[in-house]
Amino acid sequence: MDDSVTIPKISQKKVEGEKIVALTAYDYSFASLLDQSGVDIILVGDSAAMVCGGQKSTLPLTLDEALYHCRMARRGVQRALLVADMPFLSYQVSPDRAVYNAGLFFKRAEVDAVKIEGGLSVVDTVRRLVDVGMPVMGHLGLTPQSIRRFGSYSVQAQDQASAAQLLEDALALQEAGAFSIVLEKIPKDLAKTVTKKLSIPTIGIGAGPHCDGQILVTYDMLGLFEDFRPKFVRRYAELAKTIQAACARYADDVRKGTFPDEQESF
User: Fold this and answer.
1) Which residues are identified as catalytic?
2) Which residues contact 125 (CB under 8 A, 6 or more apart)?
3) Which ranges in 38-146 belong to alpha helices (H)?
4) What confidence score (pLDDT) does residue 227 get?
5) Residue 1: its pLDDT value, please?
6) Domain-located, residue 2
7) How many CA atoms lie within 13 A of 242 on its CB side?
8) Of 171, 161, 163, which Cα lies nearest the Cα of 202?
9) Residues 104-107: contacts with CB within 8 Å, 24+ apart?
10) Residues 245 and 225 placed together within one structural domain of the fold
11) Is the residue at 89 inside a domain?
12) Total Cβ atoms within 10 A of residue 20
């Protein structure tokens, strides 16, 4: 029996009330571990710019870099749905350019879907992508590629007008053919309303418990990335401290001459 996660299976989870589990991966090793753990969706996020590249935002990630991370992750994924985050300026210029660039992710990295940020401004692009057979995940609320406009990573859609706009954007993305929408850092009651209004799944990150699924940056969830810690992140491990301690023990053994020992030598 094929247990591969597909777009229809993701859609069915909402119908059946089964929560969707998503995490990020940027290379073969992590993608393989996440895939084996039973994660439904693996997002090769543009967050790679920050957690892998040390950048202050997601904006510097290039198309070639994103494709490289996707190709590495693809080799580790056997069953989960692999989604590529399209980086800044890879889809905003025009629908035609978006179709070409998105096609590179499907052709060169063999992803299952792409994710783009924005509402009404990208609806035509979403429709074009879907029309040529490229599944699209939307992204509303705090959209990190718009950080220069927001000015900070604060909670979005907190007043009535912006909340109404977000709902309108979500319905427009659904009508354009998006198969799901990430809701990032918005009030939980708004996320609940949007989730109920939509027939497609919502995936929350800092959007409360009422979304159809949840996603976190894996480096945050595992305690690997220590530059900052968002309120919405629950840490299931503190691997940065574990790794630092292990490396310190290794360095100590090397300096003392106790590694390698007789059994570790030829």
Assistant:
1) 184
2) 91, 95, 98, 116
3) 48-51, 63-74, 95-108, 123-131
4) 87
5) 61
6) no
7) 8
8) 171
9) 104/63, 104/67, 105/66, 105/67, 105/70, 106/134
10) no
11) yes
12) 24
d(CA 73, CA 90): 20
Q: Are 126 and 95 in contact (CB under 8 A)?
A: no
Structure tokens at 99: 């179709």
pTM of the model: 0.96
User: What is the amino acid identity at position 206?
Assistant: G
Query: Residue 72 belongs to what domain range?
Result: 7-235
Q: Reduced to 3 states, what is the DSSP secondary structure of residue 4?
A: coil
Residue 79's pLDDT is 98
The per-residue pLDDT for range 187-206, each reduced to its tens digit, is: 999 999 999 999 999 999 99
Output b/e per residue, 217-241; b: 16+ Cβ within 10 A. bbbbbbbbbeeeeeebbeeeeebee
In the chain, DSSP finds a helix count (H) and a strand count (E) of 11, 8
**Which residue ranges of the chain lie beneath pLDDT 70?**
1
Question: Do 159 and 264 belong to one domain?
Answer: no
CA dist 204 and 80 (Å) reads 18
What CATH number does residue 96 fall under?
3.20.20.60
